[in-house]
Amino acid sequence: MKRITYHPILEVKEKKTIPFYWNGKKLFACEGEMISSALIANGIYIFGHHQKDNSPQGLFCANGQCAQCAVIANGLPVKSCMTEVKENMIIQSCEGLPELPKVEENVKFKPIEKVETEVLIIGGGPSGLSAAIELSKSNVSLILVDDKTELGGKLVLQTHKFFGSIEDCYAGTRGIDIAKILAEELQEHPHVKVWTNSIVLFVFSDQKVGILRGEKYFLVKPKIILNATGAREKMLVFPGNTLPGVYGAGAFQTLVNRDLVLPSERIFIIGGGNVGLIAGYHALQAGIVVVGLAEALPQCGGYKVHEDKLKRLGVQIYTSHTILSANGKDRVESVTIAEVDKDFNYLVGTEKTIACDTVLIAVGLDSINEFQKEAEEANMIVYSTGDAQEIAEASSAMFNGKIAGIKIAKELGKCEMDIPEEWAHKAEILKSPPGKTYPYIIPEEESGVLPILHCIQEIPCNPCISVCPLNLINIEHDSLMGIPKFEGNCTGCGLCLTICPALAITLVDYRKNAEFPAVSIPYEVQNYPIKVGQKINMVDIDGNLLDTLEVIKVRDTKTKTQIIQIKSPKSIAKRIAGIRIQDEEISKLLPNPIIPKINDNVIVCRCERVTAGEIRKWIRKGVTDMNQLKGITRAGMGACGSKTCESLILKMYREEGYSLDQITRNTKRPLFIEVPLGTFSNME
Description:
Largest sheet: 7 strands, mixed
CATH architecture of the largest domain: 3-Layer(bba) Sandwich
Helix content: 10-25%
Number of domains: 4
């Protein structure tokens, strides 16, 4: 079984197992998990083959946004990532066009239940929860709807500590714990209705919202809608982009951090924003080798401290590189990347192929805004918050959700509170991209206890200054975006080490031996265990090897961050920034790079297997209406409703010289996901 049996942060509990059948073979799943996770835990990565070209199909988004993971469960076609395994469930792969069950006779119908509420919040992630908490304080009647079984959104996938400020967004606390804090706070208000495992289908013109709750259909009529649906991941067009083993980063984190399934042994990441960098760290915490990360820009777009953390652990990062192909027959076996010039054209002769079984795509997010537009067309009062409003960090989403909740309460006349001016300022800071990077300066002192702050880029983060009991760490002008600086006489309590989200602080203690001071380093990858007496590789801020030194002490902390202490020559003690756990050999290039044919046969529409060449041909013939393009090519006509391919097609229009205001967008079908027809009649 491919399951995680130990994790340095997550509690691995023994779960009840239940039998199910896959193509006639008896297998076992953990009770409550999704079909896709159960299959991958059993080593099954191919869930079927496409009816058009017999290409293998597997998990891609794990969020119900695409339809690549479809299977037949007890006779019905379902998305395996959104369907729970039941005991003795009979599951079959989709091979070609499946035979659907016969229509039952003498079925009975129940009337559709209609519900009224003041506010409907769509999405139970950080922004939706924060807004619900504020609204509940004003006794606003509300229904919060989320399509997962557990509240928290992407927070439940985040094992790292959050940035921002402790006061405003729980900085220094792990995302998984923030999700619990927010959910528990909401439970203190019993008048709030929380509908989990529920999916909003459409906002109709009569101002009612169709919601599928479990298997029952409801019509909800709210006075105000808050769209807190988050975002969906962007995709890239390259040969092999539909192979099983090509995941969105969110799908990978769902498998590893939510379901404790081990989907990979060696991964390669495309995209150096925070999502890609964090996914790499999560992979290491799960015991998975990260063979590399490629970013098309000259430098990673995510926080430098995230990038530095990966470099220190031994991850090879290739900037100014792009993916050329994912290679393999039925599953990813390797990835080919190459250097790009300033115009992002790939440089022939720079191809590199690296063995891996998984390629993570982390190249940005698109806001999920369908419900916002539908509500506006229905002349409803609608607000948006979090990533549904603007792509930013979860710390910003929480703060903006809080502001949205107060605005809606005021709109309903149930709150007289004026939103303080500094809140808007804080909200802007929390969503700020990385700012200026400063020179790396090592302090000259060599006495007492000296905290070394390996943090040289302006980012919205200050938990280190909040926890220092002597207020010895400060940011200039008390700005959240400044660079922290230390001044004074440190006692060596180590609180700053255990709260820093980037593990970017070390302590050098000269008190016992000035020539060989003790250096304390934070460490969170305990599935690569470090023990007293062991010799480990010490690296500088950029991941360069400094020396191999012996561990003299290992201390566990309440935050699950271990403190590893070594004795170091004073010549390098202050330069030590981390511990390398991956050997350089794991990123070794294959001797003969696989050079793909870059042609028009790459897939743009995954559902209907429509190629770039087919789409480009009609764009060049002057088709600017995406509905017409869909009618001609079927691009966007598949089960996902163009959620995956629309942004790729719009990118192709831009590449052909069109501006987006020249393009007529797809008319969205009046359902967010596929639903059996009988559901709309509450068929028994």
